[in-house]
Amino acid sequence: MKWKKFTLTITTEAVDLVSSMFDDIGIEGIEIEDNIPLTEKETKGMFIDILPELPPDEGIAKVSFYLDDDADVEEILKKVEEGLDELSLFTDLGARIITAGETEDKDWINNWKQYFKPFTVDHILIKPTWETVPEEHKDKLLVQIDPGTAFGTGMHETTQLCIRQLEKRVDKDTLVLDVGTGSGILGITALKLGAKEVWGTDLDENAITAVGENLEANSISTDRFHVVQGNIIDDRDVKDWAGYDKYDVVVANILADVIIMLVDEIPAHLKKGGYFITSGIINMKEEAVKAAFARCGELEVVEVTYQGEWVSVTARKK
19-43: per-residue pLDDT in tens? Predict the structure, then answer.
């Protein structure tokens, strides 16, 4: 299906008013482009490790909206112009130029699949469920993953760093807590490596579905991988569900700012001598993460590994 795209160029100070006006006349799902830097509060809330390089903010914004083939374009554009006329009486709209274009629907959920191919992490083959096993890798330990709408194909360096740490720390009696489990790739890999059971937490409800489907794809019983939606940092129910002094290994492949907060929480869930494996740490945040571990009297860093720009820090509960 093709959509008509209209882009309005205005001042950044008028964006909120124009957005409200669009809503009033029935235009929904707008897209806003500007070069206003994110505030410290915004970046902290979004857990962003690398901020994009933005051009200088010149006070100009572009607000786009989309109309389908059945829409009365002429009538809607008339209402837009009338709304802009009214707003111009008490705010600076700037250029106030509307440009028209066209765009097509895309299957955003599945379009990325063309880029996810089988790959190996040492003796482990990670394969999307829709691909066949390459002949040269038939002797490798197979992990099949379909992320669905949950994050985590395993191809990223941070996931590979975690997998290599799991290989060192997992045996047949290991209980694993996978924080931010996503598709369940780390927990499922741990089970394939011989772990006894896995508990996973994730903020995204889609992770529940993804984990279930990937367990089935790997012929793993659901009673070996338990998963819940919620935040173990501040949700008492999730903390209690996970349990205390319980795990041999906790793994978290998230972002540095989240890991720093987890450093204070995870010791309560680890057995004495258990390992906390972390990654998702961009190299510029390495020292901040290591400083957080240093402040924690219950954890001692035992290994730091690197791949590309990414860092994995593994600590042991004293």
Answer: 999 988 989 889 999 988 766 655 5
Question: Is 39 marked as binding a ligand?
Answer: no
Residues 6+ apart with CB under 8 A from 300: 293, 315, 316, 318
Nearest to 5 by CA among 71, 60, 61, 58: 71
Q: Is residue 159 a known part of a binding site?
A: yes
**Residue 304, burial from CB neighbour count under 10 angstroms (0-12, 13-18, 19+):** middle
Looking at residue 23, the DSSP 8-state letter turns out to be: H
pLDDT tens per residue across span 6-15: 999 999 999 9
Q: Is 26 annotated as a binding residue?
A: no
Confirm or reject CATH 3.40.50.150 for domain 149-317, answering yes or no. yes
What is the Cα–Cα distance from 12 to 56, expressed in whole angstroms? 13
Q: Which residues pair with 7 in a beta bridge?
A: 64, 99
* CATH number of the structural domain 2-112: 3.30.70.120
Pull the structure tokens for residue 76.
């809607």
Cβ atoms 32, 15 nearer than 8 A: yes
What pLDDT does 107 receive? 59
Q: Residue 69 carries which side chain, given as an amino acid letter?
A: D
* pLDDT in the model for residue 1: 64
User: Can you tell me the distance from the alpha carbon of 178 to that of 176, in angstroms, rounded to the nearest whole number?
Assistant: 6
Residue 202 marked in a binding site: yes
Domain range summary for the chain, segments of one domain joined by +: 2-112, 149-317
Using only C-alpha atoms, the chain has a radius of gyration, in whole angstroms, of 24
The answer to whether residue 169 scores a pLDDT higher than 70 is: yes
In 3D, which of 76, 191, 93 has the Cα closest to residue 145?
Answer: 191
How many Cα atoms sit within 13 Å of 237 on the Cβ side? 3
Among residues 181, 113, 186, 110, the alpha carbon closest in space to that of 143 is found at: 186
